[in-house]
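Troubleshooting log. The previous run stalled partway through. Resubmitting the same two chains, unchanged.
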Amino acid sequence: MEVGRLPISASQRGKLISAGYTTLSSLSSLSPSDLARDLNIPDGEAVEILKVASLTNRLDKPDGSHAIVNGAQTAWDMLHEEQLFPRLTTSCADMDGILGGGINCKEVTEIGGVPGIGKTQLGIQLAVNVQIPVDYGGLGGKAIYIDTEGSFMVERALQIAEACVVDMSEYNDLLRKGNRSCQVKVQPNDILENIFYFRICSYTEQMALINYLDKFISEHKDVKIVIVDSVTFHFRQDFEDLALRTRLLSGMALKLMNLARNYNLAVVIFNQVTTKYIEGSFQLALALGDSWSHSCTNRVILYWNGDERYAYIDKSPSLRSASAPFAVTSKGIRNSASNSWPSGISIENTSPRSSSIRSG
Amino acid sequence: MGLTPENLLRRPITTQKCTLGCPVLDRCLAGGIPCNSVTELVAESGCGKTQLCLQLALSAQLPLSHGGLSASSLYIHTELPFPYRRLQQLSRTFHHPHSVLRCNPCDSIFVHAVHNADQLLDIMPHIESFLAEPKTQLPIKLIVIDSIAALFRSEFDNTPSDLKRRSSLFFKISGKLKSLAKRFSLAVVVTNQVVDFIGENDGINGMRPGNLSSLYSSGRRVCPALGLAWSNCVNSRLFLSRNEEVIGEDKALADTCDRDYLCRQTRRQLYVVFAPHLPESSCEFVISKEGVFGVER
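Second attempt completed without errors. Output:
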């Protein structure tokens, strides 16, 4: 009986039940005066009861009213909830396609690839895209960028932010036929300001920061993505005790997973690739070993296919494995067809030597 | 270290760069070698790695208005002897046109020899205290390590355990360099050698680091030494190539170039293999008595 859970006095509860009000929904559309009449209590008391009831009702909602254990959810509710939340676009429609619409909130997504494939570029792109306002189909949130390698470049972030603002105004013009009253209010500088940037120089700093994130995010609830670029770097230096490394890493993964769930945000962590000796030959594998590979919900591998960059869904509970091409352009991550940097910087592909370099 | 985030707007909107001492090369690299970052110069011997590093150590002393860092530099060399005479030569031609430098530029380049990786790690604390309390006229803002590959030339076998030990050293050295770079806003440049690429044409295509599907120098297909693990340790990678050319075959080209260039039979090219802030690009350059200069075409 739902009213049994209401934090009200026993006599009030008794009156409610005997008057036939047993469920919270039966109280939801009731006026205080009606309730006062039915229960034979003063109007003020009835107002209090309804207030408590609606509060309880609201608290119950996200957890699912059918749940037996507090905090548990039915799969139906979860599906419903998942459909409610927009996904975070990568700005590459093909990559969004294989990701089921983009990076999912509440999940940890690991992205790995060789140096120069565009991991940091994708990280900066996501830190910018998370700020696309809700009106434009975005999350309208802020980003935490944890830079462990020092590859984050402000000028590049600004470049990507500027391109994002241009895209938004184009979208605005198309959708609203150039209605001047709803101009894009976001400025590239605002986008930079809403990236909380942490530069980490050792694994102890990295652990400390991840531990502190819970507090930080509870004070900054509008953070919608945590990016770690890369999780790997400081864990590949001189770890004598590999068991310790595994423990630290899995503890960190658990904390990131909790952050993703509790604060309803996306966690994206980047990993490096390494060569692994399997059955007499060296093969490419993501770093940090086998036990780490269980730590993330989704795993995306970026790789070269000829002269084109591809993303591949390596592991996901809900997505089928698929690959899609993407490109790194002056504007950021984009679909592969539009693959071109501006020619402002002297690119010499005219000489035979240069072209022979590209022909491998 | 900080548990408070950095406001990106409070940073200069473009990362501070150190000029290479040539506007054409600077344009190719969007201003030069970035601070707070580790940049790798990969090339076979005789391509101009050391030339470029020496020139960089000199141009770092230029004032900010001239694209320099107004700073001295620390030059860690592994090959003996250190090319003092060439530095002297460069500094003379360098010193003269830029009267902004008052004293002898060689006085602001600190040179140290290192022979293996452990030795480099051993002197790191000294470097750190040297950087923290500079006894120099200009603060140190540039560290050059020429070359990183030479530190790992011996002492390591091709066994899994040795390779593992070696790559953990890579990450240790790089971690240390990056944290110094961040703490003191240093530009760090390391040079690396190449090894011949042996294997199928597309065999390791999936693991190629960077924009170029293959690197060619002196007509051979090469790849940077120290493997994939080390590639993860640098922020940017530049590749210098040289290829011999028969003069007179291309008359149109010969006409556009000056006499100095014509006597040389080598065409040199600088490529951005990967860099977080740069597109894939390249630039031809020449090495003359006066230094390393990009060629605009």
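Takeaways: The domain at 8-295 of chain B is CATH 3.40.50.300 (Rossmann fold). Chain B has one domain: 8-295.
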